[in-house]
């Protein structure tokens, strides 16, 4: 793990108007993680894409995917203020979450009535 003098945080936000804009998010993420290993890059891409796809499927657009990248350490993705179409525990919401279980260090779906937050953090170090 890099020492504190080497750690560099980069934060960005990518607006999504729906599923057709996922390709732009993927391009942004690949550029953001350009210096990371191929394995870490693929893991982060799968986690962020799963999170954003959940938002596209279960919430009303537009929303913003916020990314915080700590070089060589972690990537955190967060989607806040989602206006959800489905309630927690909806069977369709459960299907892709095994990807998050396996690849994310932590993740959370926090739904209150019809508003929600999706977050996930990916370990880029290993």
Radius of gyration: 14 Å
CATH architectural grouping: 2-Layer Sandwich
Number of domains: 1
Number of helices: 4
Fill in the CATH topology: Heat Shock Protein 90
Structural class: alpha+beta
CATH C-level class:
Alpha Beta
Strand runs, count: 6
In whole angstroms, how far apart are the ends? 10 Å
* Sheet of most strands: 6 strands, antiparallel
Topology pattern, helix = H, strand = E: EHHEEEHHEE
CATH fourth-tier homologous superfamily:
Histidine kinase-like ATPase, C-terminal domain
Describe the global form: globular
Helix content range of the residues, please?
25-40%
Protein name: Histidine kinase-like ATPase domain-containing protein
What does this structure look like?
This is Histidine kinase-like ATPase domain-containing protein. The chain has 126 residues and is α+β, with helices and mostly antiparallel strands. The chain has one domain (9-123): 2-Layer Sandwich (Heat Shock Protein 90), CATH 3.30.565.10. The chain has helices spanning 22-32, 38-58, 91-94, 97-103; strands spanning 9-16, 59-60, 63-70, 74-84, 106-112, 115-123. Strands 1, 2, 3, 4, 5 and 6 form a six-stranded antiparallel sheet that branches. α1 (22-32) runs antiparallel to α2 (38-58) and α2 runs antiparallel to α4 (97-103). It is globular. The model is unreliable at 1-6 (pLDDT under 50).
């Amino acid at each position: 793990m890099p020492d504190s003098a080497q750690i560099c945080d980069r934060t960005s936000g990518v607006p999504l108007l729906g599923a057709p804009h996922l390709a732009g998010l993927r391009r942004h993420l690949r550029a953001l993680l350009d210096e990371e290993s191929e394995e870490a890059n693929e893991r982060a891409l799968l986690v962020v894409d799963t999170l954003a796809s959940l938002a596209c499927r279960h919430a009303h657009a537009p929303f913003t995917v916020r990314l915080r990248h700590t070089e060589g350490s972690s990537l955190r993705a967060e989607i806040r203020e989602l206006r959800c179409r489905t309630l927690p525990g909806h069977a369709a919401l459960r299907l892709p979450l095994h990807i998050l279980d396996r690849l994310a260090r932590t993740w959370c779906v926090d739904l209150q009535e019809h508003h929600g937050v999706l977050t996930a953090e990916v370990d880029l170090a290993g």
